[in-house]
Specification:
With 630 residues, the chain is an alpha/beta fold. The protein is 33% helix and 18% strand. It is built from 20 helices and 20 strands. Strand 12 and strand 13 form a beta hairpin. The chain starts with 39 loop residues before the first strand and ends with a helix. The mean pLDDT is 93.
């Protein structure tokens, strides 16, 4: 990876392989749970680029090879789920009655390729979730955009901004160009959801839809600076009884409403918008459940990677993601009450490197990495009592390097792909760091990775064992086992189909976990099928770096209820030495640096005393530590 100035990469070796066939599928033991779904693990695409990723064509018969390679990749990696755009940027990628033939320039796909993928997935026991990563729709093209006419009272589905202007342009990182509460916007989205639900619900491989929500999504406002349309303001006044004293003839009434709402009624306005959007999204979830009771609607905000205002010295636990989500128009507490809704959040593990090479210097850019690990990111959503998942978004570097006169493929008589996209992947075992952090912090039932390229390319061998264990667990709530949270998280569940438990190592080193067991053994490792003997109420589990072990015993059998770790002594000693050095540097640091570092050092000391080594390492990865150490 040479995209960062002053950070060249050295090539140690180059190996060229000729493949004799697709990779071997990972063995998937028959699940032992009854009446539950497995936890979902797999690939997630922000962009619809399957033909580009898998070396095929966007038409038949060649697209069959794309599907072959996709399925082979998923099965070799232990994946059971694909999230893929069915509606993207400017409309559906499949034909619909109201939005056209589904072909978008630059992203061609075969006619109704989703139906084809579902048929192929059925034969392999895989699931597909269709994502709505949508900015606008063809049916909205005739919206009123004359600002003078709108200020004079004409209605428009385009969003009215805080200063009474219309938002007619914008792209990634800017709020929605439309008013999501406008009947034409909601009606168009509802119509697409209804049509595609009817088309795909009969397939057992279809697993519902996902609202992919960057700030520019058509589904929500994306900001408190938008949505001051006359019809919204009138509905707010009717529902709440709050008179904003607006003059219909005032061309700047939207701005006057903004000032009144932000000055005196901010939370009432935020609450009202959230209730309205929750009602609309509840309709979409209802359409899915009416077609098939097990179908769900995933809500996946991308807000954390669209922000650019995290302060370098802001402790990660002070970031209020719920408040940010509410500012954009959605309240997770309201969404959690909707039958059939699942919550997700998106993190970007390599965003700190992208920021480091484009915007911020080191060590300030590291703050983007630190937010990925803070318990405060997960807890407000995980505690709402609905299935919760994490998407790891790959921030990528792109360049038209292939358009230059480069030797290589052309010399071999092969066409050169001009536009290149690359995503850095970490060496072993660090590809699993975010997987371990996610499951360590929350009892997630879904974990996906991706963006523009195959999210796990080059790290399949690291991901596959974790995915195999995760997929053997039922997607039902597991309870924390007391005393085993950090550096190994253990959770357990009792059911009519057995006694379940899992152990997630949150460190980059192997550990040995001795669990205390009630009841008769043995315990079974769900991936290997091997039994772990229980002696005197104890069983020993070897955990690889960032590794996950899934355990099971027949109902009424061995139940994990506690335990202790072995092998953390050297790490504790090393962390003690590191803290001693930082404490020694603190008195000589500038006053401003001391003000930042002192409370974080106190927290670090507390974490070490409590044995919370994973969280301690995360705190020591914050920018203040690098500055104090210099």
């Amino acid at each position: 990876m040479t995209a960062e100035a002053g950070r060249p990469a050295a090539v140690a070796s180059v190996k060229v392989y000729e493949l004799s066939g697709p990779p071997a599928a990972q063995a998937r033991p028959k699940p032992r749970f009854v009446g539950a779904q497995p936890r979902r693990v797999g690939l997630y695409y922000e962009d619809p680029v399957l033909p580009l990723n898998f070396g095929g064509e966007a038409s038949f018969p060649q697209f069959a090879q794309v599907a072959d390679r996709l399925i082979a990749t998923m099965e070799a990696s232990g994946f059971n789920t694909l999230y893929y755009p069915v509606v993207w940027y400017h409309g559906p990628l499949v034909p619909t009655a109201t939005q056209g033939d589904g072909q978008q320039p630059g992203r061609p796909h075969p006619y109704d390729f989703i139906s084809y993928l579902l048929r192929r997935f059925e034969a392999h026991g895989l699931k597909l979730v269709g994502t709505f990563n949508v900015h606008d729709l063809p049916s909205l093209a005739g919206a009123e955009t004359d600002e003078d006419r709108v200020r004079a009272g004409a209605l428009t589905s385009v969003t009215v901004q805080w200063d009474s202007s219309l938002k007619t342009t914008g792209w990634h990182g800017t709020p929605n160009n439309y008013n999501p509460l406008d009947p034409s916007v909601h009606g168009a989205l509802r119509g697409v959801v209804a049509e595609l639900t009817k088309r795909y619900a009969a397939s057992p491989a279809f697993d519902g839809f996902c609202l992919h929500l960057p700030v520019h999504s058509l589904f929500w406002f994306g900001s408190l600076d938008t949505g001051y349309n006359d019809q919204n303001l009138a509905a707010f006044a009717k529902d709440t009884g709050i008179d904003l004293h607006l003059d219909p003839a005032d061309p700047f009434r939207a701005n006057h409403a903004y000032q009144a709402l932000m000055g005196s009624h901010r939370q009432r306005w935020i609450d009202w918008r959230a209730r309205r959007l929750a009602a609309q999204w509840g309709e979409y979830a209802g359409l899915l459940r009416a077609a098939r009771p097990d179908l769900t609607l995933a809500i996946n905000p991308y807000y954390s990677i669209d922000k650019n205002d995290f302060q370098p010295d802001q402790p990660p636990e002070q970031a209020d993601y719920v408040a940010e989500m509410r500012d954009y128009g959605a309240d997770p507490a309201l969404l959690a009450r909707i039958p059939g809704v699942r919550l997700m959040n998106t993190l970007s593990p390599d965003l700190y490197r992208w920021e480091r090479s484009n915007n911020r210097p080191t060590p300030e850019a590291r703050v983007y990495r630190n937010f990925n690990f803070s318990p405060s990111f997960y807890e407000p959503f995980a505690r709402l009592g609905v299935p919760y998942g994490i998407q790891l978004h790959d921030k990528y570097w792109e360049d038209a390097v292939g358009a230059k006169s480069l030797p290589g493929l052309r010399d071999w008589g092969q066409p050169e792909l001009s536009w290149r996209v690359s995503t850095p992947v970490p060496p072993a075992p660090f590809a699993l760091e975010n997987y371990a952090a996610a499951l360590g912090n929350a009892d997630i039932t879904t974990l996906t990775k991706g963006g523009f390229v195959v999210g796990t390319v080059g790290i399949e061998d690291q991901i596959a064992p974790w995915a195999a264990a995760f997929g053997q667990l039922p997607a039902v709530p597991f309870a924390d086992v007391a005393g085993l949270a950090d550096p190994v998280r253990v959770r357990a569940c009792q059911g009519a189909d057995g006694e379940w438990a899992y152990a997630q190592n949150r460190l980059a080193q192997p550990l040995e976990l001795v669990v205390s067991v009630a009841g008769r053994g043995p315990l079974t490792d769900l991936v290997s099928g091997q039994t772990l003997p229980v002696t005197d109420g104890k069983a020993t589990i070897a955990l690889p770096p960032y590794g996950l072990v899934a355990l099971w015993s027949p109902a009424g059998g061995a139940r994990v209820q506690g335990g202790a770790l072995r092998g953390t002594g050297p790490l504790r000693a090393a962390l003690r030495t590191r803290l001693d050095g930082l404490n020694a540097s603190l008195p000589a640091a500038p006053e401003a640096e001391r003000a930042v570092a002192a409370p974080r050092l106190a927290l670090a000391e507390k974490l070490l005393a409590e044995g919370r080594l994973a969280r301690l390492i995360e705190v020591l990865d914050e920018p203040w530590e690098a500055r104090l150490r210099r």
